[in-house]
Amino acid sequence: MSVDRSAPNTPSTARSQSTIDGSASDGSGAAAPVTDLSDQGAIVGEADVLLPSDAHTADCDTPTIRRGRPSVAEAEALSGRILDASWDVLLIGGFENFTFDRVARHAHIGKATIYSRFAGKFELMQALLLRRIDQRNDYLSQQGSDLPLEQAFRLRAGEVMKMLFSPDGVLMDRLIDWLDQESGTGQQMLGSAYRSAIETISAQLLKRRDADAPLVADVTVAARLWVEGLIGHARLANTEGAASPAEIERWAADYTRFYFAGLRAMHQPG
To answer: Which residues fall within 8 angstroms of residue 128, CB to CB, at 6 or more apart?
Structure first.
């Protein structure tokens, strides 16, 4: 799927590093040496990759270490592991308690390994948001993929509401706001998240798999109306406390029926 990944003007690396771990950078960009190795066979740095312990002898419990740079797959897996650990740390302690030290402990790696991939807090948070957007869109696209279009959209509408009201959804909104405030470029990340959702919905509308699906002349406009309806309802329902599973399912059914009736009416003669 397509996501607007153009990076906004980011704060300096020195500022990001000093605000994330509570200590001022010496300006050299040098990272602290790795002092904690994983006890779970983790990749701990660019030079040391711990392998599984199936080659251990009965009287030796030290992992075998292969020297050299990790493979592309290993490097990508480690970056994902860092980002997933970062999300867990945010969920547990919030932004005010977020540090690279906590992420390193949670991921069982050295802090220097994090700095080798992310220059500072802003860069890590930006990558984290893009990862979460991709994961959310992929999940929603899979929901009802074998159903007629209208039924699939009804199922996805309910899932979107559940996501927006969940702790993950609330944290996603806070992450977007934090990035926009730190970048000083307005609501660029919020706009990027909205455009990503619109592009995903547009692609789904173009994949007509059943005869009853309406013809859509302008899928971008149709997708935008769908997304705006979801977001508008989420904001209203949140103020009214109307976020129970039963209320979500009822609204998803009503909204989807209304939306598709509107699409069909737009293409009727007269």
So the answer is: 83, 86, 87, 175
Overall size of the chain counted in residues: 270
Q: Are 45 and 34 in contact (CB under 8 A)?
A: yes
Residue 215, exposed/middle/buried by CB under 10 A (0-12, 13-18, 19+)? exposed
66: helix, coil or strand? Answer: strand
Residue 80 Cα distances to 77, 94, 154, angstroms: 5, 20, 31
Is residue 217 very low, low, confident or very high in pLDDT (cuts 50, 70, 90)? confident
Q: What is the pTM of this model?
A: 0.69
- Does residue 111 contact residue 32 with C-beta atoms inside 8 Å? yes
What's the pLDDT tens digit per position in 23-35? Answer: 334 444 444 443 3
